[in-house]
Sequence to fold (153 residues):
Amino acid sequence: MNPPAPDRFRSEAILVARLLLVGLFLIYGWDKLTGFAGTVAYMAQVGAPAPALAAATAVLVEVVVALAIAAGLLTRPLALLLAGYTLAAGIIGHPFWGAEGLARYADAINFYKNVSIAGGCLLLAVTGAGRYAIDARIGRARAFAPTRRLADG
Fold:
């Protein structure tokens, strides 16, 4: 019996989704790394505590964590970390509730994009990395899997 069509390419779809999800972090994380002084200045401008540490944290999460997720390494816990980071970045970087006019509109769009990206990260934390991942190769795919209840089948 063949699996239903949506499940036929499940691992492939998860791989593509994983790569699409972290692409944004890799692009802008690389920009933060290569323009580190500007990143520190931006962190100071938005009022982040310890701007140099905040900038280093942003680079670590956006480059190292995103690369690990792209490779499918420790996907579930790192996807949770990335979800929290993305929500915090939205709150700190896009406080639309304190802006007016076009600035409010632009910040609202970016804030809710962060919320949506965090939702994608949470979904990845639940689904796991799929077959095409380091986690699957080393048997870690189930290490952080939610337990099934008896009622789930």
